[in-house]
Design goal:
Blueprint (H helix, E strand, L loop, with lengths): L1 H36 L14 H15 L2 H14 L32 H14 L6 H15 L19 H7 L7 H10 L4 H8 L6 E3 L4 H6 L5 H8 L11 E3 L11 H7 L6 H4 L8 H9 L1 H15 L21
Antiparallel strand pairs: 1-2
Helix pairs in contact: 2-4, 2-5, 3-5, 8-14, 11-13, 13-14
Length: about 325
């Protein structure tokens, strides 16, 4: 009798042990899958590069203090990076014998800038924690810090992206929305990247800072009717009907170096610089959101920061994919 009880006891203990082992195996597998599949995390570098955020912030602060426009340029670099095969730092790569990169694509040629600032950040980060932090993550943090330096909101940046070893000229030409885009084209483009129409309107608010080349808005100021006449006249002074392609005008003529909601107020009185800007307030489905943001800056800030996090999560390379470039301009 005692022998039978002992036997049953041993069997029960063995079964419990096997169940525990099974549960632990599933748990470990889950952890490993998270690591490999690439869940971005705000604490990704907390142990491997604890000074990362302060280094990026310091360099961005100096760059924006030197030239306010640089803040907008860094935000634009991040946007143009994420819309071309995901947020993988590919826009930072120079051309080489293997591929023609994205810097000379239509949306970037003679307008994408801020590469030297990213180089400076990377140099300082490498001196602090070599071979640890990706250029894609540096660009993402720099975009956030640029907004903050221009009196905009802050948010928690998710990290853990890795860098692409290649870039695509054709993808840059095809995937970045044109300033001449219609509302339906803009909506479709953002949806193709997993972003909603609400995200589109919120992210477009980044045009409350920065400047644009005459070549990108000439057609609007000379040929379109849904534009404030006085505004068009003032912009024409620095953007002739022929020539002067590189002449600059602010995207927000009211507070061009402050991140606020004036962009939306401008759209309501037909002072959008780009055709694509004014499309957001032109009798269409996004008019009400523009109106809401024009009177409620906090609402805009809340939606903008959420959309920036969402955009930063477009197809990141994580786990064993990609690489950690030591020089942001070239693959290892």
């Amino acid at each position: 009798m005692c022998v039978k009880r002992a036997h049953r006891f041993l069997l029960n203990m063995m079964m419990r042990t096997l169940v525990c082992i099974g549960v632990m195996a599933v748990f470990v597998s889950f952890i490993n899958m998270n690591s490999v599949n690439g869940q971005l995390s705000s604490t990704f570098y907390d142990k491997s590069c604890p000074r990362l955020q302060s280094v990026v912030q310091s360099v961005v602060k100096q760059a924006v203090a030197k030239e306010k426009r640089m803040g907008a340029s860094l935000v634009r670099l991040h946007f143009h990076d994420c819309f071309v095969n995901g947020c993988d730092g590919s826009i930072l790569l120079d051309d080489n014998a293997t591929f023609t990169g994205e810097k000379t694509a239509g949306p970037n040629a003679n307008s994408a800038r801020g590469f030297e600032v990213i180089d400076s950040i990377k140099t300082q980060v490498e001196a602090t924690c070599s071979g640890v932090v990706s250029c894609a993550d540096i660009l993402t943090i720099a975009a956030r810090d640029s907004i903050v330096e221009l009196q905009g909101p802050t948010w928690t940046v998710m990290l853990g992206r890795r860098d692409s070893p290649t870039a695509s000229l054709s993808a840059a030409n095809n995937n970045i929305p044109s300033p001449a885009s219609s509302l339906s084209t803009l909506i479709s483009s953002f949806q193709a990247h997993g972003l909603s129409t609400k995200d589109l309107v919120a992210l477009s608010g980044a045009h409350t800072i920065g400047q644009s080349r005459c070549a990108f808005f000439r057609t609007r100021i000379y040929n379109e009717s849904n534009i404030n006449a006085g505004f068009a006249t003032s912009v024409k002074a620095n953007c002739p009907s022929a020539g002067g392609d590189n002449n600059l005008s602010p995207l927000d003529s009211v507070t061009p170096t402050t991140f606020d909601n004036k962009y939306y107020a401008n759209l309501k009185i037909q002072k959008g610089l780009f055709h694509s800007d004014q499309q957001l307030f032109n009798g269409g489905s996004t008019d009400s959101q523009v109106t809401a943001y024009s009177t409620n800056q906090n609402s805009f800030f809340t939606d903008f920061t959420a959309a920036m996090v969402k955009m930063g999560n477009i197809s990141p390379l994580t786990g064993n994919s990609g690489q950690i470039r030591r020089n942001c301009r070239k693959a290892n």
